[in-house]
Write a structure and sequence with these properties.
heterotrimer; A alpha/beta (about 450); B alpha/beta (about 250); C alpha/beta (about 210); A: about 450 residues; Rossmann fold; six-stranded parallel β-sheet; 22 helices; about 50% helix; globular; B: about 250 residues; alpha/beta; four-stranded parallel β-sheet; 8 strands; about 10% strand
């Protein structure tokens, strides 16, 4: 059976076909990046915070088993229940079992990339449980039956007209409505009903503090807070890389997260849970799902430091011009390219090449993950495992063969410079010449540098 | 002072005047320039495609050619970054390798950090757009990048700023990638071209009269896009401006 | 083997180099006028601030807000301000709080760098009130203002309450074309009343 691979370049080209949308997408995300720059510059110790955040995360990874045990011990002391899941299936089974035990039919969920990664929604729906995503952007995507295209701004790829159409169909808003205030108000009313009817709330977690056994959730809408303040049952899915050692470390991360994500000084709500709501239950599901494998790898371990701020997506010139869906992954953009290609290099072979190696992602990263270098490293893995198309591999072999032989390089260069300008245009600019689709090739000089230089040496200065 | 001149293969074949300008500039500053003719390509296209076995012999070839020079100077941030950061996996432990890493410089950093030259005299009465080639910017830190909080600096601008009549373009996106990216320009042709067109539009909007960069590859890409569209903003490698070339020498 | 031990054993099997846990010494950002900074940031994140020299002035200060004057259902947890509509302390099911127009709650401390106010659970019997009310008022002693989150976390006893949170501005979203909409799910407005006259390192500027 043929293996389906993600072909980023083809999907990106299709996205760019809609020039107006591409420009909007690019500018909207650049605007977020510019706000981030302004917020970062307002903090004189910004670079120190980045360095500390990176050190804290790397240290935590080194002692992850100890910190997980400390976290569990403290969480139990507060009356939380702690579960461990090796993979997505175990995670989903644990969540389902808790919900079934409480006879829950309706759940509200706030944003959690981990539950997206585990495909929790369709799993619960198959078992007759209604799951409502309550983050506005995620709800829009859920109603449209599309995956989010950004980890912080899930609906960044669609226009208000499209939101209007979606809400008209599903929420009965006026046809052709486009006013964001009107549409958000309609969603507020719709989701209030869902909040009032839910028997359990599911959240993700931004940080899990080993010292205190608490989890911290950051939102702007307040949806996570409403979702777990009404029903007695709160289930929080926690990737094991979310651990940080100390309560005081929260200051470092809460100072970085929102500033780097959206340019806000902090999220509107930063909520700390140590134990269940009075009379209720708090379940913490600690999930591995490939994280221990990444941790064991000397290069990819770095990617587990990610705090999901989304800044590398906002700054990536390729992401901004290709849209999140072109990555066909729960997490798109530079960090998504690393995580997905590290996990499954065959399927995601094209993602590390969807990168001009500009390095902006690494400079914007709040925990200093060298994302561009990780993508470069992955290219080695992918080429080494022969996941690259044969033509590309052969071209590189040929180039290397020529470049190893100075005489051949010199000869080939002279031949090309003499020959190519004489060729009819259709032979140079055709389907096979990707460079020439929108670009002219350089005008060929008669003499190379080495010829000019050697002439000059021969004939004196 | 004697240096080995490292001229990237595409400059050798396509932009010989950039190499000549580099040699002349260095000689004018009293440097003894030697161009070892055995050199070809540093291997970056192969390395950036992930083809390490194809890169390896070129790394060895490079070390053999340049090992004995006190300094190696190159008018390309990208190719210097290749030697400085990506040869290690092939050449680690080879005699002369650590020294090679320490003595290989991009032209602007060689002028500013090693020769410690003052801003160059001359005249260049144009509004110049300095394109911040990414590997020079974020790899070699030839200038401060917009993401990092700290003092603002630019070795390119420092070298140019004393030229009579010169002014500099101020862009909303000071260091957005042009979209060349080596084989990226072929693999992701649509995105690459879009990035380049956007970068050119930024420069047109602010009235750039001459576009320069420490890497000719970015300019090759941008110039190729312009020539197809019949627009023509002169592009010059920074070595050409520093060597006193007129705008008529622009590509 | 169960999942817990499987995960822990895998983690123990693969040793990872440690570069140490850094000390968090700073120095951190400080402001000459923390009160002004707090108020400026609060306005920038969509909130508003009032000052009241004495707790007794609170009702008068809040009466400046037209929506507060018109409110039919107010739950005040700050004594000088009267609750309106019913005895909210008898609420047992938090769903009943959905009808609240206003919630007036005490904040333990304010953070100048980001206008965040810390609220701990025991001061608010049903935390749902903070999110369900159409409008929220937080009363914060001026002397509790700190410069940054570092000082804030240093002053909050870790893990002593089952729930505690920072609130910075009203509920908001920008998920529709990046247009900022205030009042996504939670309160449509946030008013922080700073009380007292002893603000740290700051002129009292009503």
């Amino acid at each position: 059976m043929a293996h389906t691979t993600v072909e980023h370049a083809a999907d990106a080209a299709a996205f760019i076909q809609n020039q107006e949308r591409t420009r909007w997408h690019d500018q909207a995300l650049w605007f977020v990046r510019a706000k981030r720059d302004k917020a970062a510059r307002a903090v004189p110790e910004w670079e120190q915070l980045r360095a500390l955040a990176g050190q804290i995360k790397r240290h935590t990874l080194a002692h992850l088993a100890d910190y997980l045990l400390q976290f569990e011990e403290q969480a139990l002391r507060h009356g939380a229940q702690v579960h461990w899941a090796r993979n997505a299936d175990e995670h989903n089974q644990i969540v389902l079992e808790i919900l079934q035990r409480h006879l829950v039919r309706k759940v509200v969920k706030s944003k959690s990339m981990l539950t997206e990664e585990c495909h929790l929604n369709p799993y619960l729906e198959r078992h007759g449980i209604e799951v409502v995503d309550t983050d506005l952007g995620e709800r829009i995507m859920q109603l449209r039956q599309e995956p989010p295209s950004h980890i912080v701004l899930p609906a960044i790829h669609i226009k208000k007209e499209e939101v209007g159409q979606t809400f008209h169909t599903h929420l009965g808003t006026q046809a052709d409505a486009t006013d964001p205030n009107y549409l958000a108000e309609a969603a507020r009313g719709h989701l209030r009903e869902k909040f009032m009817a839910a028997a359990a709330g599911i959240t993700g977690v931004n940080f899990a503090v080993a010292e205190t056994g608490g989890v911290v959730v950051c939102t702007n809408e307040g949806n996570a807070d409403i979702g777990v303040a009404l029903p007695p049952l709160h289930i929080a899915s926690v990737g094991i890389e979310k651990l940080i050692p100390r309560w005081a470390d929260l200051a470092i991360f809460t100072r970085l997260l929102a500033r780097n994500a959206t340019g806000q000084p902090v999220t509107a709500y930063t909520s700390h849970f140590h134990g269940p709501i009075p009379g209720g239950e708090l379940h913490l599901v600690l999930v591995d799902n490939g994280r221990t494998t990444l941790r064991a790898h000397d290069v990819f371990r770095e990617s587990l430091c990610c705090i999901r701020c989304g800044a590398c997506l906002n700054t990536c010139p390729v992401y901004r011009r290709s849209g999140g869906h072109s990555y066909h992954a729960t997490i798109p953009g530079p960090i998504g390219s690393v995580l997905n290609a590290a996990h499954d290099p065959r399927t995601y072979y094209s993602l590390p090449y969807a990168c001009s190696l500009c390095g902006s992602c690494a400079d914007v990263c709040p925990v200093k993950i060298p994302l561009d270098q990780q993508l470069l490293y992955l290219r080695g893995t992918i080429a080494g495992a022969k996941h690259l198309p044969l033509a590309k591999r052969l071209l590189m072999k040929l180039t290397s063969f020529v470049m190893q032989r100075t005489w051949l390089y010199t000869f080939a260069g002279r031949l090309a410079r003499w020959w190519l300008p004489k060729l009819p245009r259709f032979l140079v600019y055709n389907r096979l010449n990707a460079w020439g689709k929108q670009r002219e090739i350089p005008a060929f000089p008669k003499k190379s540098f080495r010829e000019l230089y050697q002439n000059r040496q021969r004939h004196g200065q | 002072m004697r240096i080995g001149l490292f001229i990237p293969c595409y400059i050798d074949q396509l932009y010989p005047d950039v190499g000549m300008a580099t040699a002349e500039l260095l000689e004018k500053l009293g440097v003894e320039v030697e161009f070892p003719v055995e050199q070809t390509c540093c291997g970056q296209p192969m390395a950036n495609t992930g083809c390490q076995p194809e890169t390896r012999p070129l790394a060895f070839k490079f070390l053999k050619i340049f090992r004995d020079f006190p300094y190696v100077v190159c008018p390309s941030g990208s190719c210097v970054a290749m030697v400085r950061y990506h040869y290690r996996e092939h050449l680690s432990g080879q005699p002369g390798f650590e020294e090679l890493v320490g003595k290989t410089f991009e032209l602007c950093e060689f002028l500013v950090d090693v020769l410690k030259v003052k801003p160059l005299a001359g005249s260049f009465p144009y509004q110049v757009g300095i394109h911040q080639s990414c590997h020079g910017l974020r790899g070699l830190r030839l200038a401060s990048s917009s993401e990092v909080v700290g003092p603002s600096f630019s070795k390119m601008r420092y070298l140019l700023e004393a030229l009579e009549g010169i002014t500099f373009s101020q862009l909303d996106r000071p260091d957005e990638c042009c979209g060349f990216g080596g084989t990226f320009s072929i693999n992701e042709e649509a995105v690459s071209s879009q990035m380049g067109l956007d970068r050119l539009a930024d420069h047109e909007r602010v009235g750039t009269q001459v576009l320069t960069a420490p890497d000719m590859s970015c300019l090759m890409h941008l110039s190729g896009l312009m020539r197809r569209r019949g627009t023509r903003l002169p592009v010059m490698h920074i070595a050409q401006i520093l060597a006193g070339r007129a705008v008529s020498a622009a590509y | 083997m169960d999942s817990k031990h499987d995960i822990l054993n895998t983690l123990r099997r693969d040793p990872v180099p440690d570069t140490g846990l850094p000390a968090l010494d700073g120095p951190w950002l400080t402001f000459e006028q923390p009160l002004d900074q707090f108020r400026e940031v609060l306005a920038a994140v969509g909130g508003q601030s009032l000052v009241a020299a004495h707790e007794g002035d609170l009702p008068h200060a809040l009466a400046q807000l037209p929506s507060f004057r018109a409110a039919q259902r107010v739950w005040s947890l700050v004594p000088p301000v009267a609750s309106v509509g019913r005895d909210w302390t008898t609420v047992t099911d938090p769903h009943e709080l959905e009808v609240l127009d206003y919630c007036v709650a005490p904040g333990a401390l304010g953070v100048a760098e980001n206008a965040a106010v810390w609220i701990a659970h025991p001061t608010v019997p049903h935390r749902a009130a903070l999110f369900l009310a159409q409008h929220l008022v937080l009363v914060v002693p001026g002397r509790s203002l700190v410069h940054t989150m570092h000082e804030a976390y240093a002053r909050i006893p870790p893990g002593q309450t089952s729930f505690g949170l920072f609130i910075s501005g009203p509920s908001k979203t920008a998920d529709i074309e990046q247009a900022l909409v205030i009042g996504a799910h939670g309160p449509r407005s946030l008013t922080v009343v700073l009380t007292g006259t002893d603000f740290p390192a700051s002129r009292f500027s009503p």
